[in-house]
Amino acid sequence: MSSFAEAGFVFFILVLFAGLYLSLFGLPGAAVVFLDVLLYALFTGFSQIGWKLLLFLLILAVLSEAVDFWAESIKIHKIPPTRIFFWGAALGGVAGMIVLTPFLWGLGIWGGFYLGGLTGLLITEWIRQSRLKIPHQAGGLSILGMIGRKTVKGMFALTMIFVSLSHIYS
Description:
Layout: H1 3-23, H2 29-43, H3 51-73, H4 83-104, H5 106-131, H6 140-169
């Protein structure tokens, strides 16, 4: 593999992490993952990623965004995208990778990044909620709905990443 191809693959992996990270904040992370895999397939001449897989990933990306749109329409609690939440999720993601990678190897890197990021996000939201006056705090069911929303969206992105990487490495 040439150094240009290696740099391209590193960029591919970094964009996959970015897509997974974006899904924590209700942004179109699954769409970013799909576009990244599509570009990888184009650059490799569809040798490892075929049209059937791309269609499957497109369906998952559309379902992920549909779930997010539905959750938005029923007014599930949403975390404001501030710098403290981005840092909390980033630190949690790194911590999750460090903790889960020795036990689950490759699965631990991706799952740990997502679960740690979600945990960091929830801790920062818990701190923010504890500082608010009671009438302005989100209710317990609203917080559970937010966790469910982020979990479902993240599971779609993780599934897309696992399927893509399993086809690339097989």
